[in-house]
């Protein structure tokens, strides 16, 4: 096979530069990195780490970050000395490999704030992954650029906790002063994506832009909707709407001139993927896509999306171009609708509620949802409730108040309506007789929101949570709209309501905010 544009690192090692998707697929197959599914996607496995490893994530603590990072168990500090020593070890390791791969891409579809990114790794499929997920330049770039970030990824090189100053045999380290990211000891490609997301989450607030863990789409008239939420709550599924145009499925920025996508592709969860319920995602998984930890039928090579024997966090990475209905500019107008997606395990939150600005700040800071699908190492296979600040606490280096204040500012300067949308359980708790809201039900609610149907709706108050809930929504059973009416055991419903409210109150004690925001949350009656 003839490979374009090779760069010789030394006499023994060849670094393949800016390979096309076809070349990368061929290289991955030739090197036994994966196999092709019947739909043409490249199927790979990531070993023991089938999700992010938050306990192994570090930020270099120096003059740039000392007073700006919210240091905690997620934003763990590491010295410059330890970082530089490990970087040199990883670089030497990669230079000694027979083959390595490099590509030049960017993140941030913004005229002045886009960031060039250089990625170098030992696996062809890792380069295919970032080629799908990051933004591809119109003209191939072949040399380093000003303000460039560099990702050095050596999955086969394990770290030594005692020597390297880290916690295990893997590490993900962000160095903001030197614009470098080092990833060692993990094959899970999502670490590269989320590392660059964290970079933008640190940089953009200084430019008066709110970075967001959200999906975005637009209607035919350009009306933009945002879908906040943790993995598994429905961002990718609901934003891939056959009646609307996709901007992006996971990461965006919101400034005075509208919103813009950080990425050039999508990273969809595949668990129980259905062609009938999620046609756009199903059809996007084709040749050039990457399927992570999806099990194939041995004879037919068809993906079995119901098989979670490797992980519940099965994934598909594909470029935006594989979604025909997309916004070509990768940007959108000022948001018309903002949806906070939550997966309530207690079965006591309504499928939709309208939020005041103060309630929006409260639920944004709370970030209540469920951990679904083992997106993190050590999370286990069960589903449990969590509070993830800004609907993405692992990715936000600065204090939560920075992002909450920017959200409030953006809401004040727009006409956006904010809604809490529960994609979780009703009629009972998870595992205790409750049923999860169906995708068609949630889609009908989303349609009512983005079409402004709820602006004309009549609302009633949900006791305890003090939420405004509509009394009727087109194509949704009215009995589903008020969770009080979906439970047969009213005393158990009341007990679960009190339990969730107490969790909200306890979690929110850590935030120093105005009384108006504090009082916007649920209360014990």
Structure notes:
With 525 residues, this protein is of the alpha/beta class. The chain is 24% helix and 26% strand. The protein has 13 helices and 31 strands. The protein has a 9-stranded mixed β-sheet, sandwiched between helices. Strands 12, 13, 14, 15, 16, 22, 23, 24 and 27 form a 9-stranded mixed β-sheet that branches. Helix 1 (21-30) runs antiparallel to helix 3 (124-133) and helix 8 runs antiparallel to helix 9. The longest helix is centred in the last third of the chain and has 19 residues, at 490-508. Residues 1-11 have low confidence and may be disordered.
Secondary structure layout:
Blueprint: E1 6-8, E2 14-17, H1 21-30, E3 35-36, E4 42-44, E5 57-60, E6 76-78, H2 80-95, E7 99-107, E8 115-121, H3 124-133, E9 149-154, H4 161-164, E10 171-175, E11 180-184, H5 190-203, E12 210-218, E13 224-228, H6 235-239, E14 245-248, E15 251-255, E16 258-261, E17 265-269, H7 279-284, E18 290-292, E19 295-296, E20 303-304, E21 315-319, E22 331-332, E23 335-342, E24 352-355, H8 357-366, E25 368-371, E26 384-387, H9 400-412, E27 417-422, E28 425-426, E29 435-436, H10 439-450, E30 459-462, E31 467-470, H11 478-481, H12 490-508, H13 515-518
Parallel strand pairs: 2-7, 4-18, 5-6, 5-10, 8-9, 9-11, 13-23, 23-27
Antiparallel strand pairs: 1-2, 3-4, 7-8, 10-11, 12-13, 12-14, 12-15, 15-16, 16-22, 17-21, 18-21, 19-20, 24-27, 25-26, 28-29, 30-31
Classify the beta-strand content into a percent band.
Answer: 25-35%
User: What percentage of residues falls in helices of 4 or more residues?
Assistant: 10-25%
Task: Please list the strands of the largest sheet in the order they lie side by side.
Answer: 1-2-7-8-9-11-10-5-6
Unreliable parts: 1-11
Shape: globular
> How many runs of DSSP E, i.e. beta strands?
31
Count up the helices.
13
Structural class determined from secondary elements: alpha/beta
Radius of gyration equals 23 Å
> What oligomeric assembly is this protein in?
single chain
Mean pLDDT over the full residue set: 94
**CA distance, first residue to last residue:** 71 Å
Taking the sheet with the most strands, its summary is: 9 strands, mixed
